TrEMBL record:
Protein name: Threonine dehydratase
Gene3D superfamilies found in the cross-reference section: 3.40.50.1100
Organism: Lysobacter arenosi
Top-level taxon of the source organism: Bacteria
Matches recorded under Pfam families: PALP
C-alpha cells in the first residue's frame, strides 16, 4: 500500500466520488451509452474517453485534489499503459511534471500515447509489478509522489464517476473488469446506495483479487492474457477492503470467451475494445438482469493484435431472436352481415367493367 493511503482509508466514500465529479466536469464530458442488442446488454463506452480509457478520470482527480492540498511534487506512476496515458494527459492539461514507468511488454500504442502528451517514459521490467517496484524506488530517491494506478483514494473516487454517470440509465446490474480493483471500488461506492448489483470480471489465471477476497493472498504470477490492463499480480489493499463489503460477485472468464467477445464487439457492434475493455461484457453473458450494463473500460488495442484476432477467431453465429407472440383475447365469431344498398346519387348501382389485356382476354 502507498504510504499516504493507510491514513486516509476511512475518507473514501460517496462524498469523495461526488467531489471528484465536480472537479472533472469541466475537463471530461460524460461518455455515451450504447445498447448492444445481440448481447442484450448496455455498454458504457469508456473506450471513447480521453486517451481511450477510464483511467484518465482517476489520474486527473488525483492531480486536482493534490493541487487543492498544496502538493506540487513531481508525480510518478507505474502502469501497463492506460493509467500512464491518463496521467500524461492530466499532467499536460494542468502543467504538472509526470514520470511513467511501464513494463517493456507494454503495447506500443500505449507507449506512444504517453510520449505524445509530453510525460517522461521509463521502460523497466517484464510486468506491471516490476515496474511498480522500480517507480517506488525512484520516488524514494527523488521525493516524487507515487500515484497508484488503483490503490489511492483520489484515484478510486475519480473512477467512481463512471458509476454516477450510469444513474440515469437506472441499471439493476453493472459489470466491471477487475485488475487492481480501482474501477470496481469506485463504481460500487457510487451505485450500492441505489440498490444496484455490482459484479466484477476477471480472466482465468489472472484472478488475484478473487483469490484475495477468498483469503488467499499468496502472490502468483498471472497467466499471459489478451487483457493486459488487468494483469496484476498483487491487488490493492484499499480496494480489497472496499470490495469485500461492496462487491456482489466475481465471474472468471476463459481466455477463449474473452477473445470471441472482443471480435464480436468489433464486427457486430462496431466497438473497438482492448482485452480488458471486453472483459465485463464477456462475463455479462453469465449474468441475468433486466437492465444490465457492462463497462467497456478501454479501447487502446494495437492494430496488429486486432488484425490477428480477426483472422484467427471465428465467432459462432448469434442465435436468431425469439419472436414474442401476445395472446389475443378470445372473441365470438362474427356473423356475416348482409346489407342491401339502394341506388342513390352516393350509391350508384354496381356495374361490371370489362378490361382487355394484351392477350385480349376478357376479365369481368
Amino acid at each position: 500500500m502507498d504510504g499516504d493511503v493507510s491514513s486516509r482509508v476511512q475518507t473514501v466514500d460517496v462524498g469523495d466520488v461526488l467531489a471528484a465529479q465536480a472537479r472533472l466536469r469541466r475537463y471530461l464530458p460524460p461518455t455515451p451509452l450504447h445498447y448492444a442488442e445481440r448481447f442484450g446488454c448496455w455498454l458504457k463506452l469508456e473506450n471513447l474517453q480521453r486517451t481511450g480509457s477510464y483511467k484518465v478520470r482517476g489520474a486527473l482527480n488525483a492531480l486536482l485534489a493534490a493541487r487543492e492540498r498544496g502538493d506540487h511534487r513531481t508525480v510518478i506512476a507505474a502502469s501497463a499503459g492506460n493509467h500512464a496515458q491518463g496521467l500524461a494527459w492530466a499532467a499536460y492539461r494542468l502543467g504538472v511534471n509526470a514520470i511513467t514507468v511501464m513494463p517493456r511488454c507494454a503495447p506500443q500504442t500505449k507507449i506512444a500515447g504517453v510520449a505524445h502528451w509530453g510525460a517522461t517514459v521509463r521502460l523497466h521490467g517484464d510486468s506491471y509489478d516490476e515496474a511498480k517496484a522500480f517507480a517506488a524506488e525512484l520516488a524514494l530517491q527523488n521525493d516524487y509522489r507515487v500515484l497508484s494506478a488503483f490503490d489511492d483514494p483520489d484515484v478510486i473516487a475519480g473512477q467512481g464517476t463512471v458509476g454516477l454517470e450510469l444513474a440515469a440509465l437506472a441499471p439493476d446490474v453493472v459489470l466491471v473488469p477487475i485488475g487492481g480493483g480501482g474501477l470496481a471500488s469506485g463504481v460500487a461506492l457510487a451505485m450500492k446506495s441505489q440498490g444496484v448489483r455490482v459484479i466484477g470480471a476477471q480472466v482465468e489465471g489472472v484472478d488475484s483479487m478473487l483469490r484475495a477476497l477468498r483469503g488467499d493472498c499468496v502472490p502468483r504470477e498471472p497467466a499471459a492474457t489478451l487483457a493486459d490492463g488487468v494483469r496484476v499480480k498483487v491487488p490493492g489493499q484499499l480496494t480489497r477492503q472496499l470490495l469485500s463489503h461492496l462487491l456482489d460477485d466475481v465471474i472468471v472468464v476463459r481466455e477463449a470467451e474473452l477473445r470471441e467477445t472482443l471480435v464480436r464487439l468489433a464486427l457486430e457492434e462496431h466497438v473497438i475494445a482492448e482485452g480488458a475493455g471486453a472483459l465485463a461484457l464477456a462475463a455479462g453473458r453469465r449474468v441475468a438482469g433486466k437492465r444490465k450494463c457492462a463497462v467497456v473500460s478501454g479501447g487502446n488495442l494495437d492494430a496488429g493484435v486486432l488484425a490477428q484476432l480477426l483472422s484467427e477467431v471465428r465467432p459462432r453465429a448469434p442465435r436468431r431472436p425469439r419472436r414474442r407472440h401476445r395472446e389475443q383475447p378470445a372473441q365470438a365469431p362474427l356473423e356475416p352481415a348482409i346489407t342491401t344498398l339502394r341506388p342513390t346519387p352516393l350509391n350508384p348501382p354496381f356495374r361490371t367493367v370489362a378490361v382487355r389485356t394484351r392477350n385480349e382476354e376478357l376479365i369481368a
